[in-house]
Structures are given as C-alpha cells and as structure tokens.
C-alpha cells in the first residue's frame, strides 16, 4: 500500500475537497485509532451473507488480514457461512467502533484466499485453536460441550507433540470491496456519511456524501 496521507481522514467530510481519496487510506487511519481506543477486538466485524433461500444471515467474525485487495477472515468452509459464500460469493461487512462513534460498511464480491495465505495464518493460531479447527463441525448440531472437549483432548493425545496441520476444510475468504461507506455520529442524528463506489476491483473510486 502506498504511503498514507495523515490528513486524508480530515478531508473525508470536507465538501470543498474534490481531490481523489483512497478509502483504504481512510480505513487505515480510522482502524489505527480504533486499535488505541477500543477495549475489545477492534478487528471484529459483522459479516452478512444469504442462504439458498435468500434469507439473510449475520454473525461477528474477526478481520485477520487486509490490503488493497480486500478484507480477509478465516473459517470452516463447511460452516453455514462457508457454504453460503460458496453458493453466493457476495458479502457485506460492518465495523462498529462504539467508543469512536464510527462505522465502516463494506459490500462486495468474495473469493477464497490462497493456500499459502491460509497456511501462514493457521500457523499463527494457538495450538488449542488449531486442534479445535480439526474437530469442530461448525454450525452443525452438537450433543453436548463435553463431546467437543473430548474430541479436542483425544486429538491432542493422538498428535502428542506433532505439528497440527491445517485441515483441508479450513481456509479464508477475501471480501473485495465494491462499496465502502464511512459513517460518523453527529448531533441530533445528523450523521456524516460518505460512500465510495467502484465498478470493479481495478476501477476508480468515486465518493458521494449521503443523507444520514
């Protein structure tokens, strides 16, 4: 990513500023502030998908990577969200930084990350998290928590001190933004909203202020 202009966030809501703004740069500045001021998980984001019947589904996940290609999270591909994204590879994200009274909304297409990216991130997880990724049949019925704990301990004993490989069903998705909206709280609900849009991954960003 190119060097970030530290003033770009100040320009965001300046209606007299007509020069191009890279929304990724604004995100980096807002995110850096969230890392300082949010007590828990500044990288938490709501992920919205739709099922085979078009019924919306939403849950909180953690952003585990980002660059100018998009925003990355990791999951079990056999989970509800994994199946939904395989069938309809589009999603929406929402970061809500309550202490800053800000939101960032993102919509776009979704693609799987590379195997190398998934391997690299999986290796950074705690060993117990890696064991859990093997035994959890995510989103499917579970008889009891004791069953889950037993399976984790059984796998731990079987592997002993051997490395925990990444399961074939565990990887990541990248949301490639088509739209990025920045929302900042305003008095009397007169919020500031600016929407960045583009026609495709290589398209130029345009920005538009929105009514609150």
What can you see in these coordinates?
By secondary structure, this protein is an alpha+beta fold. Helices cover 29% and strands 32% of the residues. It contains six helices and nine strands; from the N terminus they run H-H-E-E-E-E-H-E-E-H-H-H-E-E-E. Strands 1, 2, 3, 4, 5, 6, 7, 8 and 9 form a nine-stranded antiparallel beta sheet that branches. Helix 5 (127-135) crosses helix 6. It starts with 7 loop residues before the first helix and ends with a strand. 22% of the residues are buried. The mean pLDDT is 95.
Amino- and carboxy-terminal Cα gap: 31 Å
The radius of gyration is 20 Å
Number of strands: 9
Into which percent range does the helicity of residues fall?
A: 25-40%
Q: What characteristic shape results from the CA principal axes?
A: elongated
The oligomerization state is single chain
- Uncertain spans, ≥5 residues at pLDDT below 50? none
User: Could you state the order of secondary-structure elements as H and E?
Assistant: HHEEEEHEEHHHEEE
Class by SSE composition = alpha+beta
Number of alpha- plus pi-helical segments: 6
Percent strand: 25-35%
Largest sheet: 9 strands, antiparallel
- Quote the average pLDDT: 95
Task: Describe how the helices and strands are arranged.
Blueprint: H1 8-11, H2 23-37, E1 44-50, E2 56-62, E3 65-67, E4 70-76, H3 80-87, E5 90-97, E6 102-112, H4 115-124, H5 127-135, H6 145-159, E7 170-184, E8 192-197, E9 206-209
Antiparallel strand pairs: 1-2, 1-5, 3-4, 4-7, 5-6, 6-7, 7-8, 8-9
